[in-house]
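Regression check, L-rhamnitol case 412:
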Amino acid sequence: MTYESAKAAFADWGVDTEAAIARLMTIPISMHCWQGDDVNGFERRAATSGGGIQATGNHPGRARTPDELRADLDFAYAMIPGRHRLNLHAMYLDTDKTPDRDEIEFEHFAPWVDWAREAGIGLDFNPTFFAHPKADDNLTLSHPDQGIRDFWIEHGQRSRDIAAQMGSALGSACVNNIWVPDGYKDTPIDRMAARTRLETSLDAMLAPAQDPAQMLDAVESKLFGIGVEACTIGSHEFYMGYAIRKGTLLCLDMGHFHPTENIADKLSSVALSLPQILLHVSRPMRWDSDHVTLLNDDLLAMGQELVTADLLDRTRIGLDFFDATISRTAAWVIGTRNMQKALLRALLLPLDRLRQAEDGLDYTTRLMLTEEIKDLPFGAVWAELCARDDRPSGLPLIQALDAYQAKVATRG
Ligand code: RNT
Ligand code: ZN
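Current build output:
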Protein backbone atom coordinates (compact mmCIF):
# COMPACT_ATOMS: atom_id res chain seq x y z
CA MET A 1 0.00 0.00 0.00
CA THR A 2 1.29 3.47 -0.83
CA TYR A 3 1.55 6.16 1.79
CA GLU A 4 -0.99 8.28 -0.08
CA SER A 5 -3.65 5.60 0.14
CA ALA A 6 -2.77 4.95 3.80
CA LYS A 7 -3.09 8.65 4.49
CA ALA A 8 -6.55 8.63 2.87
CA ALA A 9 -7.58 5.54 4.88
CA PHE A 10 -6.69 7.28 8.14
CA ALA A 11 -8.31 10.51 6.99
CA ASP A 12 -11.59 8.58 6.64
CA TRP A 13 -11.38 7.99 10.38
CA GLY A 14 -10.55 11.63 11.03
CA VAL A 15 -6.87 10.92 11.70
CA ASP A 16 -4.11 13.15 10.32
CA THR A 17 -1.08 11.00 9.49
CA GLU A 18 1.11 14.05 8.86
CA ALA A 19 0.48 15.33 12.38
CA ALA A 20 1.28 11.87 13.81
CA ILE A 21 4.55 11.64 11.86
CA ALA A 22 5.58 15.14 12.88
CA ARG A 23 4.83 14.43 16.57
CA LEU A 24 6.70 11.13 16.63
CA MET A 25 9.80 12.76 15.17
CA THR A 26 9.98 15.06 18.21
CA ILE A 27 10.00 12.25 20.80
CA PRO A 28 13.49 11.31 21.99
CA ILE A 29 14.14 7.81 23.29
CA SER A 30 17.04 7.41 25.71
CA MET A 31 18.94 4.38 24.44
CA HIS A 32 20.87 2.54 27.13
CA CYS A 33 24.60 2.11 26.60
CA TRP A 34 24.66 -1.20 28.47
CA GLN A 35 22.97 -3.26 25.74
CA GLY A 36 26.14 -2.73 23.68
CA ASP A 37 28.55 -4.61 25.94
CA ASP A 38 26.45 -6.81 28.23
CA VAL A 39 26.66 -4.39 31.19
CA ASN A 40 30.44 -4.72 31.52
CA GLY A 41 31.55 -1.09 31.44
CA PHE A 42 35.07 0.26 30.97
CA GLU A 43 36.57 0.45 34.42
CA ARG A 44 40.16 -0.72 34.28
CA ARG A 45 40.02 -3.15 37.11
CA ALA A 46 38.82 -6.68 37.63
CA ALA A 47 35.08 -6.70 37.18
CA THR A 48 32.87 -8.15 39.85
CA SER A 49 29.35 -9.14 39.01
CA GLY A 50 26.41 -8.84 41.32
CA GLY A 51 23.22 -6.89 41.63
CA GLY A 52 21.42 -9.69 39.81
CA ILE A 53 21.55 -7.97 36.42
CA GLN A 54 24.15 -9.93 34.50
CA ALA A 55 23.48 -10.40 30.78
CA THR A 56 23.37 -13.96 29.48
CA GLY A 57 24.72 -15.10 26.11
CA ASN A 58 27.93 -15.06 24.13
CA HIS A 59 27.09 -13.72 20.69
CA PRO A 60 30.17 -12.39 18.90
CA GLY A 61 30.70 -8.65 18.55
CA ARG A 62 30.49 -7.20 22.03
CA ALA A 63 31.94 -3.69 22.17
CA ARG A 64 35.18 -3.87 24.18
CA THR A 65 36.17 -0.22 24.23
CA PRO A 66 34.41 3.15 24.33
CA ASP A 67 35.36 3.70 20.68
CA GLU A 68 33.77 0.41 19.66
CA LEU A 69 30.67 1.21 21.66
CA ARG A 70 30.38 4.65 20.06
CA ALA A 71 30.81 3.14 16.58
CA ASP A 72 28.03 0.65 17.35
CA LEU A 73 25.83 3.45 18.67
CA ASP A 74 26.47 5.58 15.57
CA PHE A 75 25.32 2.67 13.44
CA ALA A 76 22.25 2.01 15.59
CA TYR A 77 21.12 5.65 15.60
CA ALA A 78 21.49 5.69 11.81
CA MET A 79 18.89 2.90 11.65
CA ILE A 80 16.41 4.68 13.93
CA PRO A 81 14.31 7.61 12.73
CA GLY A 82 14.50 10.85 14.71
CA ARG A 83 17.03 12.25 17.18
CA HIS A 84 17.60 10.46 20.44
CA ARG A 85 19.54 10.34 23.67
CA LEU A 86 22.15 8.05 25.19
CA ASN A 87 21.77 6.75 28.72
CA LEU A 88 25.26 6.28 30.18
CA HIS A 89 26.19 4.42 33.35
CA ALA A 90 29.05 5.71 35.49
CA MET A 91 30.97 2.46 34.86
CA TYR A 92 31.29 3.50 31.18
CA LEU A 93 33.85 6.22 31.86
CA ASP A 94 36.39 6.85 29.09
CA THR A 95 39.77 7.66 30.60
CA ASP A 96 43.25 6.23 31.04
CA LYS A 97 42.98 6.92 34.76
CA THR A 98 41.57 4.43 37.24
CA PRO A 99 39.34 6.41 39.57
CA ASP A 100 37.33 4.41 42.05
CA ARG A 101 33.61 5.10 42.09
CA ASP A 102 34.01 7.76 44.76
CA GLU A 103 36.58 9.58 42.62
CA ILE A 104 34.83 9.95 39.26
CA GLU A 105 34.74 13.35 37.63
CA PHE A 106 33.24 14.98 34.57
CA GLU A 107 36.57 14.87 32.74
CA HIS A 108 36.45 11.07 32.81
CA PHE A 109 33.41 11.30 30.54
CA ALA A 110 34.62 14.12 28.28
CA PRO A 111 34.95 11.92 25.14
CA TRP A 112 31.29 10.93 25.52
CA VAL A 113 30.22 14.55 25.77
CA ASP A 114 32.26 15.53 22.70
CA TRP A 115 30.78 12.66 20.76
CA ALA A 116 27.23 13.50 21.89
CA ARG A 117 27.65 17.17 20.96
CA GLU A 118 28.93 16.21 17.53
CA ALA A 119 26.09 13.75 16.95
CA GLY A 120 23.38 16.05 18.36
CA ILE A 121 22.51 13.49 21.02
CA GLY A 122 21.39 14.30 24.57
CA LEU A 123 22.92 12.40 27.49
CA ASP A 124 21.35 10.82 30.55
CA PHE A 125 23.34 9.34 33.40
CA ASN A 126 23.29 6.72 36.17
CA PRO A 127 25.48 6.17 39.20
CA THR A 128 26.63 2.53 39.19
CA PHE A 129 25.84 0.88 42.52
CA PHE A 130 26.69 -2.68 41.41
CA ALA A 131 29.63 -4.67 40.02
CA HIS A 132 31.96 -3.36 42.71
CA PRO A 133 33.56 -4.97 45.77
CA LYS A 134 31.72 -2.54 48.04
CA ALA A 135 28.42 -3.81 46.61
CA ASP A 136 29.18 -7.51 46.98
CA ASP A 137 26.76 -7.90 49.90
CA ASN A 138 23.95 -6.46 47.77
CA LEU A 139 23.90 -3.57 50.22
CA THR A 140 25.08 -0.06 49.27
CA LEU A 141 23.19 3.03 50.43
CA SER A 142 21.40 0.93 53.07
CA HIS A 143 24.48 -0.94 54.32
CA PRO A 144 24.74 -1.09 58.12
CA ASP A 145 28.33 0.16 57.82
CA GLN A 146 28.43 3.95 57.72
CA GLY A 147 31.74 3.89 55.81
CA ILE A 148 30.21 1.90 52.96
CA ARG A 149 27.16 4.14 52.89
CA ASP A 150 29.40 7.21 52.75
CA PHE A 151 31.40 5.72 49.86
CA TRP A 152 28.20 5.29 47.83
CA ILE A 153 26.79 8.67 48.85
CA GLU A 154 29.99 10.23 47.49
CA HIS A 155 29.59 8.25 44.27
CA GLY A 156 25.99 9.40 43.95
CA GLN A 157 26.83 13.05 44.56
CA ARG A 158 29.62 12.94 42.00
CA SER A 159 27.24 11.36 39.51
CA ARG A 160 24.79 14.21 40.06
CA ASP A 161 27.56 16.75 39.45
CA ILE A 162 28.64 14.93 36.29
CA ALA A 163 25.03 14.75 35.07
CA ALA A 164 24.61 18.48 35.66
CA GLN A 165 27.76 19.23 33.70
CA MET A 166 26.61 16.98 30.88
CA GLY A 167 23.24 18.73 30.81
CA SER A 168 24.85 22.13 30.78
CA ALA A 169 27.42 21.18 28.13
CA LEU A 170 24.72 19.83 25.81
CA GLY A 171 21.96 22.31 26.66
CA SER A 172 19.50 19.59 27.66
CA ALA A 173 18.66 18.43 31.19
CA CYS A 174 20.36 15.11 31.97
CA VAL A 175 18.31 12.63 34.01
CA ASN A 176 20.42 11.01 36.73
CA ASN A 177 18.67 7.77 37.67
CA ILE A 178 19.36 6.05 40.97
CA TRP A 179 18.92 2.32 41.16
CA VAL A 180 20.52 0.36 43.99
CA PRO A 181 20.50 -3.44 44.26
CA ASP A 182 20.00 -3.39 48.03
CA GLY A 183 18.09 -6.24 49.53
CA TYR A 184 18.11 -9.53 51.39
CA LYS A 185 18.13 -13.08 50.09
CA ASP A 186 16.27 -14.32 53.10
CA THR A 187 13.67 -12.80 55.31
CA PRO A 188 15.08 -9.88 57.29
CA ILE A 189 14.21 -9.01 60.85
CA ASP A 190 14.37 -5.26 60.52
CA ARG A 191 13.14 -3.94 57.19
CA MET A 192 12.45 -0.56 58.73
CA ALA A 193 16.08 -0.08 59.75
CA ALA A 194 17.31 -0.82 56.23
CA ARG A 195 14.71 1.43 54.63
CA THR A 196 15.48 4.23 57.06
CA ARG A 197 19.18 3.93 56.20
CA LEU A 198 18.37 4.06 52.48
CA GLU A 199 16.25 7.13 52.98
CA THR A 200 18.89 8.90 55.05
CA SER A 201 21.56 8.11 52.46
CA LEU A 202 19.37 9.34 49.61
CA ASP A 203 18.66 12.54 51.52
CA ALA A 204 22.39 13.14 51.95
CA MET A 205 23.06 12.33 48.31
CA LEU A 206 20.34 14.66 47.05
CA ALA A 207 21.06 17.47 49.52
CA PRO A 208 23.33 19.58 47.28
CA ALA A 209 21.06 21.72 45.11
CA GLN A 210 21.24 21.24 41.35
CA ASP A 211 19.72 23.28 38.55
CA PRO A 212 16.79 21.35 37.02
CA ALA A 213 17.64 22.87 33.65
CA GLN A 214 20.89 20.87 33.86
CA MET A 215 19.99 17.69 35.71
CA LEU A 216 16.96 15.87 37.11
CA ASP A 217 17.06 13.22 39.85
CA ALA A 218 15.14 9.99 39.35
CA VAL A 219 14.69 6.97 41.64
CA GLU A 220 13.97 3.43 40.40
CA SER A 221 12.06 0.83 42.39
CA LYS A 222 12.14 -2.94 42.04
CA LEU A 223 10.08 -5.85 43.23
CA PHE A 224 12.91 -8.36 43.53
CA GLY A 225 16.19 -9.43 42.00
CA ILE A 226 18.32 -12.56 41.90
CA GLY A 227 19.91 -12.82 45.34
CA VAL A 228 17.46 -10.46 47.02
CA GLU A 229 14.33 -12.56 46.76
CA ALA A 230 13.02 -11.90 50.26
CA CYS A 231 13.21 -8.14 50.42
CA THR A 232 14.20 -5.27 48.16
CA ILE A 233 14.86 -2.18 50.24
CA GLY A 234 13.95 0.24 47.43
CA SER A 235 10.49 -1.16 46.76
CA HIS A 236 7.81 0.54 44.68
CA GLU A 237 6.04 1.98 47.71
CA PHE A 238 9.35 3.20 49.14
CA TYR A 239 10.31 5.14 46.04
CA MET A 240 6.84 6.33 45.10
CA GLY A 241 6.52 7.96 48.49
CA TYR A 242 10.05 9.26 48.32
CA ALA A 243 9.63 10.77 44.85
CA ILE A 244 6.39 12.48 45.83
CA ARG A 245 7.86 13.91 49.03
CA LYS A 246 11.17 14.99 47.52
CA GLY A 247 10.09 16.01 44.05
CA THR A 248 12.29 13.61 42.10
CA LEU A 249 11.23 11.72 39.01
CA LEU A 250 9.93 8.20 39.63
CA CYS A 251 11.39 5.56 37.33
CA LEU A 252 8.98 2.78 36.40
CA ASP A 253 10.86 -0.18 34.94
CA MET A 254 8.44 -2.53 33.13
CA GLY A 255 10.33 -5.53 34.54
CA HIS A 256 10.18 -4.47 38.17
CA PHE A 257 6.65 -5.46 39.15
CA HIS A 258 4.60 -8.61 39.60
CA PRO A 259 4.40 -10.29 36.19
CA THR A 260 0.66 -9.71 35.77
CA GLU A 261 0.73 -6.02 36.67
CA ASN A 262 0.00 -3.57 33.85
CA ILE A 263 2.69 -0.89 34.02
CA ALA A 264 0.88 1.33 31.51
CA ASP A 265 -2.03 1.52 33.92
CA LYS A 266 0.23 3.07 36.56
CA LEU A 267 1.14 6.17 34.52
CA SER A 268 -2.04 8.17 34.98
CA SER A 269 -2.11 7.37 38.71
CA VAL A 270 1.44 8.40 39.52
CA ALA A 271 1.24 11.38 37.14
CA LEU A 272 -1.40 12.93 39.39
CA SER A 273 1.16 13.13 42.19
CA LEU A 274 4.38 13.61 40.24
CA PRO A 275 5.30 16.26 37.70
CA GLN A 276 7.63 13.98 35.74
CA ILE A 277 8.12 10.26 35.18
CA LEU A 278 11.01 8.20 33.85
CA LEU A 279 10.34 4.93 32.06
CA HIS A 280 12.62 1.95 31.69
CA VAL A 281 10.91 0.21 28.82
CA SER A 282 11.73 -3.47 29.02
CA ARG A 283 10.24 -6.93 28.50
CA PRO A 284 10.16 -9.20 31.51
CA MET A 285 9.64 -12.88 30.76
CA ARG A 286 8.47 -14.66 33.92
CA TRP A 287 10.76 -12.34 35.86
CA ASP A 288 12.92 -9.21 35.32
CA SER A 289 14.69 -10.86 32.38
CA ASP A 290 15.28 -7.67 30.34
CA HIS A 291 14.42 -9.17 26.94
CA VAL A 292 14.44 -6.91 23.88
CA THR A 293 11.15 -5.03 23.63
CA LEU A 294 8.65 -6.39 21.12
CA LEU A 295 5.73 -4.59 19.54
CA ASN A 296 3.43 -6.50 21.88
CA ASP A 297 0.36 -5.60 23.90
CA ASP A 298 2.42 -4.24 26.82
CA LEU A 299 4.35 -1.86 24.59
CA LEU A 300 1.25 -0.80 22.68
CA ALA A 301 -0.51 -0.11 25.97
CA MET A 302 2.44 2.00 27.14
CA GLY A 303 2.46 4.05 23.94
CA GLN A 304 -1.29 4.48 24.14
CA GLU A 305 -1.22 5.71 27.74
CA LEU A 306 1.53 8.22 27.02
CA VAL A 307 -0.58 9.67 24.22
CA THR A 308 -4.09 9.46 25.65
CA ALA A 309 -3.06 10.71 29.11
CA ASP A 310 -1.08 13.49 27.42
CA LEU A 311 2.09 12.51 29.27
CA LEU A 312 4.63 12.75 26.47
CA ASP A 313 5.88 16.15 27.57
CA ARG A 314 6.50 15.04 31.14
CA THR A 315 7.80 11.53 30.63
CA ARG A 316 11.37 10.62 29.80
CA ILE A 317 11.33 7.40 27.82
CA GLY A 318 14.38 5.24 28.49
CA LEU A 319 15.03 1.64 27.50
CA ASP A 320 16.42 -1.10 29.71
CA PHE A 321 17.11 -4.49 28.21
CA PHE A 322 20.21 -6.50 27.45
CA ASP A 323 20.42 -9.65 25.41
CA ALA A 324 23.85 -11.14 24.67
CA THR A 325 22.50 -14.02 22.56
CA ILE A 326 21.79 -11.84 19.50
CA SER A 327 23.45 -9.00 17.63
CA ARG A 328 23.73 -6.23 20.20
CA THR A 329 23.31 -3.50 17.63
CA ALA A 330 20.24 -5.22 16.20
CA ALA A 331 18.83 -5.44 19.74
CA TRP A 332 19.07 -1.66 20.14
CA VAL A 333 17.57 -0.98 16.73
CA ILE A 334 14.69 -3.45 17.08
CA GLY A 335 13.81 -2.41 20.64
CA THR A 336 13.97 1.32 19.98
CA ARG A 337 12.01 1.14 16.74
CA ASN A 338 9.37 -0.94 18.49
CA MET A 339 8.91 1.76 21.12
CA GLN A 340 8.52 4.29 18.32
CA LYS A 341 6.06 2.07 16.47
CA ALA A 342 3.97 1.77 19.63
CA LEU A 343 3.92 5.55 19.97
CA LEU A 344 3.07 6.01 16.30
CA ARG A 345 0.13 3.62 16.57
CA ALA A 346 -1.14 5.58 19.53
CA LEU A 347 -0.74 8.87 17.67
CA LEU A 348 -2.79 7.40 14.81
CA LEU A 349 -5.79 6.47 16.95
CA PRO A 350 -9.17 8.14 16.29
CA LEU A 351 -9.17 9.39 19.87
CA ASP A 352 -12.20 11.67 19.61
CA ARG A 353 -14.42 8.81 18.51
CA LEU A 354 -13.03 6.47 21.15
CA ARG A 355 -13.52 9.02 23.94
CA GLN A 356 -16.99 9.85 22.76
CA ALA A 357 -18.01 6.20 22.89
CA GLU A 358 -16.50 5.76 26.35
CA ASP A 359 -18.02 8.94 27.76
CA GLY A 360 -21.40 7.83 26.44
CA LEU A 361 -20.97 4.43 28.14
CA ASP A 362 -21.19 2.90 24.65
CA TYR A 363 -18.70 0.14 25.25
CA THR A 364 -19.91 -1.81 22.22
CA THR A 365 -18.85 0.98 19.91
CA ARG A 366 -15.60 1.41 21.80
CA LEU A 367 -14.84 -2.28 21.30
CA MET A 368 -15.85 -2.23 17.65
CA LEU A 369 -13.60 0.76 17.11
CA THR A 370 -10.53 -0.63 18.89
CA GLU A 371 -10.84 -3.88 16.94
CA GLU A 372 -11.60 -2.43 13.49
CA ILE A 373 -8.77 0.09 13.63
CA LYS A 374 -6.29 -2.72 14.12
CA ASP A 375 -6.66 -3.26 10.36
CA LEU A 376 -5.59 0.27 9.42
CA PRO A 377 -2.33 0.53 7.43
CA PHE A 378 0.03 1.59 10.25
CA GLY A 379 2.95 -0.07 8.45
CA ALA A 380 2.66 2.23 5.44
CA VAL A 381 2.87 5.30 7.69
CA TRP A 382 5.91 3.90 9.50
CA ALA A 383 7.63 3.07 6.18
CA GLU A 384 6.98 6.60 4.95
CA LEU A 385 8.41 8.10 8.14
CA CYS A 386 11.53 5.95 7.81
CA ALA A 387 11.96 6.86 4.14
CA ARG A 388 11.62 10.58 4.86
CA ASP A 389 14.35 10.36 7.49
CA ASP A 390 16.48 8.21 5.21
CA ARG A 391 16.25 5.14 7.45
CA PRO A 392 15.75 1.67 5.98
CA SER A 393 12.80 -0.52 6.85
CA GLY A 394 11.77 -4.06 5.97
CA LEU A 395 14.29 -6.18 4.07
CA PRO A 396 16.85 -3.38 3.53
CA LEU A 397 16.92 -2.89 7.32
CA ILE A 398 17.57 -6.58 7.89
CA GLN A 399 20.38 -6.48 5.32
CA ALA A 400 21.95 -3.46 7.01
CA LEU A 401 21.78 -5.09 10.46
CA ASP A 402 23.28 -8.32 9.12
CA ALA A 403 26.09 -6.48 7.33
CA TYR A 404 27.04 -4.52 10.46
CA GLN A 405 26.94 -7.63 12.65
CA ALA A 406 29.22 -9.46 10.17
CA LYS A 407 31.67 -6.56 10.49
CA VAL A 408 31.82 -6.62 14.31
CA ALA A 409 31.70 -10.41 14.65
CA THR A 410 35.46 -10.61 14.16
CA ARG A 411 36.09 -8.77 17.43
CA GLY A 412 37.97 -11.07 19.74
C1 RNT B 1 18.16 -3.14 37.41
C2 RNT B 1 17.59 -1.87 36.93
C3 RNT B 1 18.57 -0.87 36.40
C4 RNT B 1 19.65 -1.50 35.56
C5 RNT B 1 20.56 -0.50 34.91
C6 RNT B 1 21.77 -1.12 34.33
O1 RNT B 1 17.22 -4.06 37.73
O2 RNT B 1 16.60 -2.11 35.98
O3 RNT B 1 17.90 0.12 35.71
O4 RNT B 1 19.13 -2.33 34.59
O5 RNT B 1 20.85 0.50 35.82
ZN1 ZN C 1 15.79 -0.38 34.94
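Comparison notes: The CA atoms of residues 157 and 207 lie 9 Å apart. The chain has one domain: 27-350. No diff flagged against the previous build.
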